[in-house]
DNA sequence: GTATGACAGGGGAAAAATCCCCTTTTTTTA
DNA sequence: TAAAAAAAGGGGATTTTTCCCCTGTCATAC
């Protein structure tokens, strides 16, 4: 059977064979009109470049981010420069805002989390094939916040005094508050005041969670 | 068609829906004798515990390691204590020697990397179903090295008991030791013993530096 | 000028963490 | 299977942390 419109060629770039093979099954499952053709698979950006040396080229590429050697960012960047007409749909388990934003800025047509429903994946493929854009919830959110100049309700960790930062550096050590006071040439009671203020502002309940907060938010380095 | 032997019930524990669904397709693909039945899926250890509250129980569980909340290690530990007859086949992209070894020590029946061939996955399932063991290359290598007494100056954080790891996860929260004891169904005095032992082994002097150590050495995730 | 708020400091008590030394139970191993 | 080694638990004391309420100082805004 020969369809009027030629099939759409799809390529998969992901470093886990089991995931690629499963994804192929899922794509075919939803491809009731038999319009998709899996052109090739690659394990990483390097493998992709290899396959892209000569035609045929895919119309759509499903791309993971975390891969050995040449990762998704590099691969997408390279694709946009060398084959700008190819539509890229990112399929990744990465949920960090930074990385999502970076991918969107590179101009990908879609961003899917790996824990979406199969139907959503089909929908995304369909949309992208028709020159649309498809972002899963988490990516949409990130996008909106950044378009609307949501400068982010200034993180509480943004406005710390110098003394408070110094105090936090010492909080993650094995010094007692009394020793910290001594080192900072302040009264233990003043230190107690810093502690109390930080507990409230950063919404933590004890010294340990304060230390964890400081580390997690990069206020102190390990 | 009714087979003489009842079907083998399989459960999948992995936090990525797309991977689970793909894996199901791949399992069915190789199941020419139609002997496997996917009993349920779970997103993490918590979901697994939920499903394991009452029969029917699976015969084999395919388990990922990295999952939110209750991870693969905890889930396997729990399973071995509560349902020791269930066969566990780890399917993970984790390739760190430490973690592979830890899983093997927990007594899993098999260890598969996510980038194996589909046929190998079928083979592994078959082998485990028949009371065998199946380790993919990387796991076999790790196992051999350690059997041959390639000791490796093991980091003190390498040989922590499961209870100690669980304790460390709770140490970085705002729970008191009393609450931790309660949650782990142990006496506060036992928890105090864990604390003391870890202080000495990891050379730290208080709860805060213990938490910092655990974070710095990747024993707990933020 | 005075109010307001941020910063430094204090008293005192309750809660939690830390330490030291010891017993029982369970598991491993020789 | 007896001995040894972990693991679990306990008593009790000391130190540290946490909390609440309160005083003075200084600057800055009104």
From TrEMBL, chains A, B:
Pfam families cross-referenced by the UniProt entry: GerE, Response_reg
Write out the entry's keywords from A to Z.
DNA-binding, Phosphoprotein, Transcription, Transcription regulation
GO BP terms, alphabetized:
phosphorelay signal transduction system; regulation of DNA-templated transcription
Q: Which InterPro entries match?
A: CheY-like_superfamily, NreC/VraR/RcsB-like_REC, Sig_transdc_resp-reg_C-effctor, Sig_transdc_resp-reg_receiver, Tscrpt_reg_LuxR_C, WalR-like
Query: Which GO MF terms does the UniProt record name?
Result: DNA binding
User: For the modification 4-aspartylphosphate, which residues carry it?
Assistant: 64
UniProt domain HTH luxR-type: residue ranges: 153-218
Q: Which domain of life is it from?
A: Bacteria
Boundaries of each Response regulatory domain copy?
9-129
What the entry lists under SUPFAM superfamilies is as follows: C-terminal effector domain of the bipartite response regulators, CheY-like
Q: Which PANTHER family match?
A: NITRATE_NITRITE RESPONSE REGULATOR PROTEIN NARP, TWO-COMPONENT RESPONSE REGULATOR
Name-wise, this protein is: Response regulator
Q: Which organism is it from?
A: Chitinophaga tropicalis
């Amino acid at each position: 059977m020969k369809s009027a419109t030629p099939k759409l060629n799809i390529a998969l770039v992901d470093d886990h064979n089991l995931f690629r093979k499963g994804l192929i099954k899922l794509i075919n499952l939803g491809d009731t009109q038999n319009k998709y053709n899996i052109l090739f698979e690659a394990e990483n950006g390097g493998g992709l470049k290899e396959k892209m040396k000569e035609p045929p080229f895919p119309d759509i590429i499903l791309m993971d981010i975390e891969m050995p050697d040449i990762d998704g960012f590099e691969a997408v960047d390279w694709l946009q420069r060398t084959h700008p007409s190819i539509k890229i749909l990112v399929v990744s388990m990465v949920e960090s805002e930074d990385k999502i934003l970076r991918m969107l800025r590179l101009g990908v047509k879609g961003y899917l989390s790996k824990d979406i429903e199969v139907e959503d994946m089909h929908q995304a493929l369909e949309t992208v094939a028709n020159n649309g854009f498809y972002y899963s919830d988490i990516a949409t959110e990130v996008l909106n916040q950044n378009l609307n100049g949501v400068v982010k309700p200034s993180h509480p960790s943004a406005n710390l005094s110098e003394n408070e930062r110094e105090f936090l550096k010492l909080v993650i050590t094995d010094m007692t508050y009394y020793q910290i006071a001594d080192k900072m040439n302040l009264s233990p009671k003043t230190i107690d005041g810093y502690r109390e203020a930080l507990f409230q502002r950063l919404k933590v309940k004890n010294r340990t969670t304060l230390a964890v907060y400081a580390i997690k938010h990069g206020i102190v380095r390990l």
